[in-house]
Amino acid sequence: MSSPGSQRRAICSAQVFTDDLKSPSMNDLDCHHLIKVRRLRDGEEIVASDGLGGWRVCVLMGDDIEAVGEIEYEPPSSSFSIAMAPVKGERSEWAVAKLTELGAGTISALITDHAAIRWDEQQAIKVLERWKRVSVEAACQSRQVYLPTITGPLGLADLVGPGLAMGALGGRRISTEVSTIAIGPEGGWSESERGLGIDCVELAGSVLRTETAAVAAGALLGWLRSGTVPLSDIS
Questions:
Q1: Which residues make Cβ contacts (< 8 Å) with residue 192, sequence separation at least 6?
Q2: Per-residue model confidence as pLDDT tens digits over 22-62
Q3: pTM, rounded to two decimals
Q4: What's the confidence (pLDDT) of residue 118?
Q5: Among candidates 209, 189, 188, 205, which has minimal Cα distance to 197?
Q6: Does domain 4-73 fall into CATH 2.40.240.20?
Q7: How far is CA 46 from the centre of its chain?
Q8: Where along the chain do its domains lie?
Q9: Cβ-based burial of 65 (10 A; exposed 0-12, middle 13-18, buried ≥19)
Q10: Of the candidates 136, 202, 190, 142, the residue with the CA atom closest to the CA atom of residue 166
């Protein structure tokens, strides 16, 4: 369930990330967005966070922020990870934003046998930097004080370990033992990928698009860990 800190942050007008919570300040992009685009006024409350769980309430003063609250710390929750095969257009970015809002600890770009998109090294660097910017924007919007780690490209074999499951029709019900879910491409998992011996979990009773499956997986894992949906309700 939500913490008192998250409820306090939710009533503030906006959030920014800063390197120094003792002397918080806005960068030029935040300043332009909050003052020129959103037209916030002096005195409106702004959350400043370091992205590592620390945060404090500030107020907008001119073209910067001034701290008015003490530095608070949000204890880390039991985070989850999603590894997804990238998809065309802006759908991957949409999924990254939604997974950030849901509290994902790690979001990984997954290399798969049936992938429709294949990056070279420079393309991967460029796209993942874009994912990081998207996640920062989504974290500000949702008042997250932990920024997710963006990684990849990774192969499915790189993820093998305790807590990993593959999203697939006919899989078992998700349990709290699952901490990472791999989401395949719209072409599905290959025989070699299924042959890795990774448990499969079912996300819905129908075939989902990759970005939909990623967000569904994130929502299910997040709800289980936050207690929003008690285990007794889904057993």
A1: 113
A2: 999 999 999 998 999 999 999 999 999 999 999 999 999 99
A3: 0.90
A4: 85
A5: 189
A6: yes
A7: 21
A8: 4-73, 81-234
A9: buried
A10: 202
